[in-house]
Amino acid sequence: MTYTISPLPHVKSDESVKRVMWGTVAALMVFVGIMCVALVYRFGLPGLELIFPGIKILFVTVIAAVVTEIIIYKAASQPIIINDGNAVLIGLLLALILPLNVPLWVPIIGAAFAIAVPKYIFGGTGTLVFHPALVGFAFLLAAWPTLMGVESTPNLGSFSDLFLETGAGRLIEFSPIAVLLGGAFVLYKKYVDRRVALSATILLLLLMPIVGMGSQLPYVITGGYFLGLIFLAADPVTTPVTKKGRLIYGVMLAGLILIQLYFNTYFAGMCFAILLMNVFSPLIDRSTIPKPIRGK
Q1: Which domain holds residue 109?
Q2: Does residue 130 lie in a domain region?
Q3: What is the DSSP letter of 228?
Q4: CATH number, position 97
Q5: 36-63 b/e with 16+ CB inside 10 Å = b?
Q6: Would you tell me how many other CB atoms lie within 10 Å of the CB of residue 291?
Q7: If pLDDT is split at 50, 70 and 90, which confidence band does 202 have?
Q8: Which parts of the chain fold into alpha helices (H)?
Q9: Rounded Cα distance, 171 and 176, in Å
Q10: Within a domain: 1
Q11: pLDDT of 187 over the 60 cut
Q12: pTM for this model (two decimals)
């Protein structure tokens, strides 16, 4: 009998890591397609000029992430395996959360850092401690804070803003409803964890009016928050492995986001809240993993 030893994630289904990665990429690219159609429908072809800077950032960031991974494989004398889609997904997520007005050299550095440091220093796909896209974002924000500022902060001013937010400062913020559609797909396919995404989102929306932050709800019902709570926070590798642990993770994340909202940090605050919860994930696992029979 032959035994195969492989790193996480160990998925007990017909889904493979490759299919999960490319399925998530497809869900995000559908968002980009819907956003383009919505802009053309409302403004005609000139409407595409609004997101053209974001599309350039997207292509540059994805290419930089893939090239960095190839270089690392070459340097380590390992077979080049980029068709699993992980580098593409990391680059895509990073591109979607960057400001539209950022110089193109910034996402190139951010993508290279996201692949080289948080991914490969911790062992590669399946052994991550922190989400690489968020680490890349945090690195760029710390290194060049003036370049990482957005020109506008989106908020839900009317019902139509759910479909098209013309005041978006990031590519992901143009259409909250399109992000939700992509999120519904990955939740249905179980590419991300439902317990984390739903517990954090529902609890956050319920608690905000209770603690006197109801006036800030329009700043939370945006594409950026939906991407963070579904695609980033619920990543199956950086979240706890137990069901109870994932619920605790989601509850704690909602509390941290509330604290960040108190200081009006909005999207960046949510990103740092997720990174902080990545730190607590192993501790939550340690306290929620069931004890063996007759174990102490």
Answers
A1: 17-288
A2: yes
A3: I
A4: 1.10.3430
A5: bebbeeeeeeebeebbebbbebbebbbb
A6: 7
A7: very high
A8: 17-43, 52-75, 86-97, 105-114, 132-143, 176-188, 194-210, 217-220, 223-227, 243-262, 266-288
A9: 11
A10: no
A11: yes
A12: 0.90
For residue 85, the one-letter residue type is G
Query: Among residues 75, 163, 65, which one has the least CA distance to residue 112?
Result: 65
Q: How many domains does the chain fold into?
A: 1
| Average pLDDT rounded to a whole number, residues 244-264 | 92
Angle at 171 between CA 270 and CA 87, to 5 degrees: 80
Q: Dig out the tokens for 121 from the structure.
A: 């220093």
Other CB atoms within a 10 A radius of the CB of residue 77 amount to: 6
Least confident of 75-84, 132-141, 238-247: 75-84
Q: What DSSP string runs through 139-205?
A: HHHHH-TTTT--S------SGGGGT--TT-SBGGGS-HHHHHHHHHHHHHTTSS-HHHHHHHHHHHH
Q: Does 139 reside within a domain?
A: yes
Examine residue 89 and state whether it is found in any structural domain, yes or no: yes
Contacts of 206 (CB under 8 A, 6+ apart): none
Task: Report the residue count for the chain.
Answer: 296
Percent of the chain predicted with pLDDT > 90 = 50
Token representation of residue 190 = 């179980």
Kindly state the tokens that stand for 49.
């000029």
Sign of CA dihedral 274, 275, 281, 283: negative
Average pLDDT over residues 259-263: 88
